[in-house]
Design a protein that fits this description.
Elements: H1 6-12, H2 14-63, H3 65-70, H4 74-84, E1 89-96, E2 101-106, H5 121-126, E3 133-136, E4 140-149, H6 155-159, E5 170-180, H7 182-233, H8 247-313, H9 321-344, E6 353-356, H10 357-372, E7 376-381, E8 388-391, H11 393-410, E9 415-426, H12 428-434, E10 440-449, H13 456-461, H14 479-489, E11 493-498, E12 504-511, E13 535-539, H15 543-555, E14 559-563, H16 566-576, E15 580-586, H17 594-604, E16 610-614, H18 618-623, E17 633-635, H19 640-652
Helix pairs in contact: 1-2, 2-4, 2-7, 7-8, 8-9, 8-15, 9-11, 9-14, 10-11, 11-14, 16-17
Amino acid sequence: MKLLNPREYFRDHFSARIFLTLSLVIIIGTFSFTVFFYSYQRASLTEKVKDKGELLASLLAHNAKIGIFADNSDLLTAPISDILQDPQVLSVVIYASDGRILALQNRTGSKPLPDAEKWDAGVANALTDALPVVSLNSDNFIFWTRVTLKPLVAVDNLYLGGGHAKDTKKTIGFIKVVLDSNFLRKSLRSLLLACILNGVALLLIGSLIAYHLSKKITTPLNKLTEEVNSFGSEGKYKEIAVENGDEIGKLAAAFNNLVVSLQKRETEQALLEEQLRQSQKMEAVGQLAGGVAHDFNNILTAIYGHCSVLQMKMGTDAPFRRDIDQIYAAAERAANLTRSLLAFSRKQIMNPKKINLNEIVMNVGKMLTRIIGEDIQLKAVCTGKPLRVFADSGQIEQVLMNLAANARDAMTKGGILTIETAVQEIDESFIHAYGYGEAGKYVVLSVSDTGKGMDAETSKKIFEPFFTTKEVGKGTGLGLSIVYGVIKQHNGYINVYSKPEEGTTFRIYLPQVYEEDVDSEKETPPEYPRMGSETILVAEDDATIRELEGSILREFGYDVILACDGEDAVEKFKAGKEKIAIIVMDMIMPRKSGKEAYEEIKKIQPDVRILFMSGYSPDLLHDRGISANGEDVLIKPIHPLELVRKLRAVLDS
C-alpha cells in the first residue's frame, strides 16, 4: 500500500490547498481573538476586584471615623462586621495614626493570615489623600486607605478677625482590607476554559466553513474539468449550470460559450465536408458523364445517320416513315439527355438563344403526355404574351421532362400535373426572405403535382446528386440534380415547396429578356446542302460511324478515302495528298490522336484543310491536353446534313 505524500496531495489538489489556507487563517484568527478576549476579560475582572476593594476600604474608613477618633475599639466592631459580611474579605485591620492597631478581625472560619496586623509605614506615608492604594501579594489583594477628619474653625481666629481657617484634613487612622484572590483565580480559570471551548467551537465551525467554501469553489471547477475531459475524449458535453456571477460562474459561462462555438464550428466543418463530398459526387458524375458521352455520342451519331439516310430515301408517305421519325425523335431526346448530363457536370458548352418559354412548354407538352401516362392529367397554363429568356431550348426541355418524370413517380394513383408560366419581380424583400436572387424581372416556370409530397428534411436534400427516395433500382438520384445544374448554368434559381400528402411544386426563375432585346427577324431553316465532287479523307476509329460517314458523303457526290486511326490517316494522306481537298478527322483515336496526325500532315502540306469531330466536349478535350482553338470542330452526335453542310462551308471558305 502506497503511503500518502502530503506534499504531493496538496500539490495535486486545489481544494486541499484552499482548505489548508482557510484553516490556517481561521486558526490564527481564532487564537488571536481568544488571547485578546481572555486578556480583556482578565483585566476587566481584576479591575472589578480592585474597584470592590477600594469601595469597601473607603466605606469602612467613613464608618469607622468616630471609633478611630474616640480611640474606642467597641465603636469599630459594627463597621468591621459589616465589611466582613462580604465572602471575599479575609481580614480587616484598623490602625491609629501612629500605627497602633485599634481593631483587627478575620472572617469567621478563615485561617488567620500571617502578618495580617503588620504595619507598613511605607504604604501609610504614601497615602496622601483619601483614595485607597492596592497591593497584590502572591495570594491576596491588600487595600490601604487613610481616615481623615476635617478640624473645626478656631473661635479666637474668628473673634480676632483672622477669617476662616485653611481647609485642611487631619489623618486620624488607617484602614487595611485584605481580599481573597482565589475568587479572581477561579473566575479567570472559568474564563480561560470558556475561551478555550469557544476557540475550539470557532475552529470547528471555521473548519466546516472552510470545507464548505473549498467545496463551493472546487465543485464547479471539478465539474468543469470533467466536462472538458469528456468533451475532449468523447466529444460529449453537458452544459454547466451557471449558479452565480462570480469568477467561477463567468469561467463556466465562458466554457459553455467556447463549447457552443466549437460545436458550431464542428457543424460548419461537417457542412463543409458534406459540401465537399457533394462536390466530389458531382465531379464523379462529371467524369462519368464525360467518359460515357464519347461512346454514347458515337452510338447516337450512328442512329442519327441511318435515320437520316432512310428519311432521305423514303417519301413522306412511306409505310415506315412515321417509325423512322419516332426513332429520330428518340435519338434527339437521348442527345439532349447527354447534353444535360454534361451541363450538370459543367462539361458542356451551352448553345443559348433567345427563346419564348411558352412555346417550349407547349411543344414539350405533347411529349409529356406519353411520359406521365394516361392516369395523370396534364394542364399547361401559359401567359398570353411571349416570355423571352436566354436559354438552351434542349436543356430546358430536358428539365421539364425530368420534373414530369419525377411527378409521375410521386402520383402512383394518378393525379394532375400542372405547368404554369408567369413573370415575377424579385426585389430586396424577396432576396431577404429567401436568401438568394438578384433584383430584376424573372420568368417563373412552375411544375406542380398532386402526389404524396415530401417532408422538410427530404426537401433539403432533393437536389443532391445520388439522393433518391425511390426503391433500389428504380431511381439514379440524378434527375433533379441535373435540373439544378442546368438552371444554375442559366443564371437562374430553383426551389421546391412540398408537404406530405399535399403534393409538390417546383418553381424555376430565369432572367427575362425584354422585347427590344429580341431579334425581330425570324430564324430561317438551314438550306439543303449542295452536292460536291472533292476527295475527302475520313479518319474515324469507330467502324460503324466511319462507314456511315463515307456512305453519306458519297451520296452527296464526294470521293471518300477511309482511315481507321491517326497513323493510318497520315499514311493515306501521304499516298493521295495531290487529290485530297479536306480531312474529316476524329480527335481521339488510337496510335495517333487527330491533333497529332494533323500536326504531322501539316508538315507535309501546311495549307491542308481539316474538320475535326469528337464525342467529347471541348472541356474534356482540354483536360486531355488537346486544344481545338482556331479549328473547325463538330461535337457528336452529328446530324448527317449538318456534317455535309459544315464540310461544304469549310471547302468554300
